[in-house]
Specification:
The complex is a heterotetramer, with 2 copies of chain A and 2 copies of chain B. Chain A has one domain: Alpha Horseshoe (Serine Threonine Protein Phosphatase 5, Tetratricopeptide repeat), CATH 1.25.40.340. In chain A, helix 7 packs antiparallel against helix 8. By secondary structure, chain A is mainly alpha-helical. Helices cover 69% and strands 0% of the residues of chain A. Chain B is an alpha/beta fold. Chain B has 2 domains: 175 residues, Rossmann fold (3-Layer(aba) Sandwich), CATH 3.40.50.10440; 138 residues, Hypothetical Protein Tm841, Chain: A,domain 3 (2-Layer Sandwich). In chain B, strand 5, helix 3 and strand 6 form a beta-alpha-beta unit. The longest helix of chain B is centred in the C-terminal third of the chain and has 17 residues. The chains are: A mainly alpha, B alpha/beta. Chains in contact: A-B, B-C, C-D. Chains A and B meet through helix 2, helix 3, helix 4 and helix 5 of A and strand 4 and helix 3 of B. The structure holds adenosine-5'-diphosphate (ADP) (2 copies) and magnesium ion (4 copies). One adenosine-5'-diphosphate sits at the interface of chains A and B. One magnesium ion sits at the interface of chains B and A.
Chain lengths: 209, 333, 333, 209
């Protein structure tokens, strides 16, 4: 009924695929308001995650996310590395050693991930960062989890909200990260970290199909 | 994009390897996780100095590893801060027991990665202090941004804190000297052209033939204002005035004037900028007691320059003059 | 053309003025006729060393004026050799009575102008010897051309002859050491982009996005072959092989390996070239005993590099290691 | 009947005008087979000559040419400076202190100039240098001088021959100067020094009209 370690591995594998496929797009998004490396960083990080998953297959969803956290932390670099690292680590902690994740636990883990991001990067909603994808995502996830308890619906709701959240960064004026140096000139561009976040959450939903 | 590279993914690996071969008398290069350590580290009783950041700013930071400056440098991917799994072993490798100072340029990525590494090092019993460099006056509303960036001042912090460590200052004192340099140094830069990150393959921004970008950082990120091309004196004034204003410099002050090339600008042009800056400072009664002109903190092949001014006192001057022996900065030895 | 300049006609004047301001502790700049003299020249009893050539190759030659290297440098207009009315007073200013060596890169203009100046100086009673530098293996049929050009080897001739003069060698001996370096040094260069002479305003030649020019000189003149872009290792081989072949290097030889940037290439790329060159020399059993990597003889903002190899013996090595204190090269002091 | 110092000053003034007018053309000619400075060098040199002429007006044609020689030597630089310097110096010596130059003396002075060039630069006809303008020029001048002794005809013949000589450098393979480094690739370009030589000889003819 819930999500098992197979789902977690599929999620991470699909995330890696998404980063490879969208590598150039994420680089292009990072070009006008950043330093043209986000796609490269994320692709490098998730390729390393694939390697680690193959080397030592994890036994639980939590273990898979912890391994992902450590790998992203050590391979991504930049702002995104520690931020995603913290997010996955907090989610892993929230999952504990359960091998069957139900909707409520799932929503709590997503919430923990978002809270980790915020704790680490000190960004608020509206600052034009990945937080603007994660915040609506966890709200939608919590609402879905309160419904019929279908984990797939929770993940779908999170993915859709994250995608809308990424789009919502277009008109924002950046106040955190590299884009903030541009002031007004950051307006009209989509935040690359918000887009990679939406891709990761979409992969989570697809992995549960 | 035409570059002297083999594979965009191998740029940092191969470049750092070549660097290690060329300077094997001064440094040891560890390939994976990648960091560069002073040949004789850890130096007994000496505070260790570690800096690092994205690659593409050479000679920063690897070029400053050696006697009288850094004990280790940690290069990330191009324009991408390094990761804790590099910073931690570098920190451990240079700790002689006297503790380690991290010199960190104020970018979200650098700050977060060094923060994590410092926590991990502390957990292993190493005393770590962090000196944050944020000298870029181009970032105005630091309350509503990630804050001022660390740019040209970084070189001066590394040299002067390095000299303090070399003379035997303790951990608190070395960090305090680093902070003092940071408080007294300001910079601002201009780009005439953009640069191309190898893995991106296209320039980081577009500039028309008659446009320049004022207030750029060192990561190929666009700056704050885009203005029509001006002559060297006009550009120099646009960079120097906010720096002088922010430092509140006036008659009787002694300074170090540092005109830095972004990588693709001929030295002759840097001296044209230096000339104007030196003349303007002299007009204000400010004495240029020390100077540095050249490519010391770059953005790949970007054309442009930055001006950095450090207010000097006797101690900072003596520490600046102290012997240094690194691949990119050497005197007195 | 976007350059940090005020007026194309004032580029050399203002740049040299800025240079003089930045390095007033080491050099004195005479503005008209223009030449740069070591602060303490003439040094009693020491042979004087003078070099010069067109501007646009900075730090060559002005950056090498100082203890242990040149006594004077004579900058011409951009890419235009200087005139006898500059070279003569520079020669007189550094003559302590021990005579003066002219280090001349083999270009028609440099040769003719230094020749005239040497005649005039001799007429005023100064003993002058000329060391002609012609290390560029890209020029093949030297019988049917103006002969091999002086390129990267010039820096090494200036350093090593300068050390010989500083240790007190007499005029013949200093000139002989200079000739010996020239006989044992070879270079070859590549351009990835052209450069723009300020008064011309357009690039000196056109290169397509996927073309490079092999065998360039240092005056923005086109090279010998134009080939499609290759990777760094391939380009390095194309430069190194003729150099090694021409020197007849083999197992047991000791060399100085000098990878030089043409002005617009990031240091990181120079180290990628260095890596390959060092590996290839090691494979041949050649020991790289000394190295130099950076922008030391440039063509304005040109992207590209040159590789110079000098066969070392014990004396040349010791002279290379001898203390030098100039704006652009400094060690041991 | 002959040429006086007024002619010499007009010649040098018209030469300076020609260098200023053709500055860009000479730079452009020097670009593909040289280093883009010939027009700049010649213009700088002849502007300086104008200054010197105004400062201390010469008394004889020979004095005017000697002053020109010294000024070009000290202001032009590059290969052209010493070459033109030597040429004008030898011509001045050939003129001596005469104040009235007849056709034979004129032809001899031009010959001396050419010989000075060759002595200094060691170029032979066909090497694609200014010698390829001067050699036909002095031959034509000698032939004209042997005719009715009209100095204007001597100068016109020299100018026309120099212009044809400059054109004749197009197909040559350079063997001297910077262009020689290009080998075969120097073929198809006109030598800038030959063109500036033709301009100077044309100015001499115009000054006598
Ligand atoms: N303080 C922060 N809090 C949350 N997210 C941030 C913060 N700073 C930056 N980011 C995110 O990081 C992304 C940039 O990541 P990346 O390009 O990999 O790193 P860098 O900016 O160091 O080059 C931004 O698009 C943004 O979403
Ligand atoms: N050895 C030589 N003999 C005669 N003329 C020469 C010689 N070398 C070069 N020249 C002439 O000089 C011209 C180039 O002059 P210029 O561009 O001013 O000097 P540089 O080549 O030093 O840049 C050539 O076009 C050619 O006519
Ligand atoms: Mg980025
Ligand atoms: Mg980055
Ligand atoms: Mg020239
Ligand atoms: Mg020329």
């Amino acid at each position: 009924m819930g999500l098992d370690v197979g789902w977690a591995v599929r999620w991470l594998t699909l995330s890696a695929q998404a980063m490879a496929e969208h590598r150039v797009e994420l680089i292009e998004l990072d070009r006008p308001i950043g330093d043209s490396d986000h796609g490269e960083n994320m692709d490098r990080g998730f390729q390393a995650v694939l390697g680690k998953l193959a080397e030592a297959p994890p036994e639980t969803p939590g273990a898979a996310l912890k391994l992902t956290a450590m790998t992203l932390m050590s391979k991504v670099g930049g702002a995104a590395g520690p931020l995603y690292g913290t997010a996955f680590l907090r989610a892993a902690t929230a999952l504990g050693d359960t091998s069957d994740v139900d909707a409520a636990t799932l929503a709590a883990a997503l919430q923990a991930a978002r809270d980790g991001l915020v704790a680490r990067g000190k960004a608020e909603p509206g600052d034009k960062t990945m937080v603007d994808a994660w915040t609506p995502a966890i709200e939608a996830a919590a609402a879905a989890a309160a419904g019929d308890g279908d984990v797939r619906k929770v993940l779908l709701a999170a993915a859709e909200a994250a995608e809308a959240g990424a789009v919502s960064t277009d008109p924002m004026l950046a106040r955190k990260g590299r884009a903030s140096y541009l002031g007004e000139r950051s307006i009209g561009h989509r935040d690359p970290g918000a887009v990679s976040s939406a891709l990761i959450l979409r992969a989570a939903a697809e992995a549960a199909e | 994009m035409k570059k002297l590279i083999n594979d965009p993914k191998a740029v940092v690996d191969e470049s750092v390897e070549g660097f290690g071969l060329a300077h094997a008398d001064l440094v040891t290069v560890f390939p994976d996780p990648k960091y560069i350590v002073r040949k004789d580290a850890p130096v007994a009783g000496k505070v260790g100095l570690v800096s690092g950041g994205g690659s593409g700013h050479e000679p920063l930071h690897g070029g400053y590893v050696g006697k009288g400056m850094l004990d280790a440098a940690v290069p990330g991917a191009v324009f991408t801060s390094p990761t804790p799994d590099q910073i931690l072993p570098a920190t451990l490798a240079v700790n002689s027991g006297a503790g380690v100072v991290h010199i960190v340029k104020n970018y979200t990525g650098d700050v977060l990665n060094f923060e994590t590494a410092a926590e991990l090092a502390q957990a292993e019993g190493v005393d770590v202090r962090t000196v944050l460099v944020n000298d870029d006056v181009a970032v105005e509303d630091s309350l509503y941004t990630a804050g001022r960036r660390g740019v040209g001042g970084t070189v001066l912090v590394e040299k002067i804190a390095g000299a303090a460590a070399e003379r035997g200052d303790n951990l608190e004192a070395v960090a305090a000297i680093g902070d003092r340099v940071n408080q007294n140094v300001r910079s601002m830069g201009v780009a005439l052209t953009a640069c191309t990150v190898p893995h991106a393959g296209v320039p980081s921004f577009e500039l028309e033939e008659n446009e320049i970008e004022i207030g750029i950082g060192i990561h190929g990120e666009p700056g704050r204002h885009r203005i029509p091309m001006e002559n060297a004196d006009g550009i120099t004034d646009r960079l120097l005035d906010p720096v002088v204003g922010d430092l509140g410099l006036g008659s009787g002050d002694n300074v170090l004037l540092f005109v830095n090339g972004m990588g693709g600008t001929p030295q002759s042009e840097l001296y044209i900028v230096y000339r104007r800056a030196a003349q303007k400072l002299a007009e204000k009664g400010v004495t240029v007691a020390r100077s540095l002109v050249g490519n010391y903190i770059t953005s790949l092949e970007m054309q442009g320059c930055s001006i950095t001014v450090l207010r000097l006192d006797d101690e900072l001057t003596a520490l600046w003059d102290a012997p240094v022996h690194t691949p990119a900065l050497r005197w007195g030895v």
